[in-house]
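#struct-help
A.M.: can someone run this one for me? Single chain, 275 residues.
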Amino acid sequence: MKTGRRTAAVAALVGALGLSTLNASTAHAADTGITVSDIVINKGKPILVGTTKVVEPPLSFRITLPRGYSTANPFSYGGEPFLYRGSITRATDTGDNYIGPGSYICYEVDSRRARCEGHLYINPEPSQEHVDSNSDATSWKVGVALQLWKPSGGFLTGELETRSLTVPLRRVSKTTVDASPEPVTRGRTVTVTGKLTRANWSTKRYDGYGDRTASLQFRAKGTDAFTTVKKATTSRTGALRTTVTASVDGYYRWVYQGDSATGPATSTADFVDVR
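D.P.: on it. Structure tokens below:
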């Protein structure tokens, strides 16, 4: 069960990755008349989560309030962004469908428009259980709780939700590299090994990631760019191994491009002196 549910009675607005204008459908309440636009989550990239480090992806959006509401009152807006699956109501009642909350603040553009920015909050620690199953590496909706006070009195209430608009949550991957022998005679073979692992959210460890294709890249000493020289497939335990012919001094590294549930990984570079 995920922790940290919303506790205040608030009106909920929701956005999604890459959406320029949000026209959300009403859920369990009348349309509030609020519009949300220019939503950007994590700079347009998937959210990558490991096993221990708190992740706080940046979030920004704009809101336009309905007539009768004003951004002039500093208590009129502000709230908590969060991730959810299903409907907002079910997400706030069922922890497995909810991650968060984060925080944000809004700045007045004019009497009815505001620019908002803040961050989501994802804690993979076992005590938080924000991601406690590898099945959590999927698409999530992004909710934004917003509290509005009408100048004439009373709160604007209601819950709006997206339908198929989502942001991907992915498991962090890592890879290592070791090139030998060092130094090596020109024309001889260099063996390059390594290992690809990825976060296991159930055990809070990094496990070997098997049957994945990784690229061996090389950068000659004195140059700036890496180029792919070979590809290799990881073993059942995530091990990588291949050979190349030594020609010039340079650096070797492994690169994994990632997949739908796992983020990309690039190892450090290992230098080989060719004599």
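A.M.: thanks! The two ends are 59 Å apart (CA to CA).
D.P.: also worth noting: Residues 20 and 118 are 18 Å apart (CA to CA).
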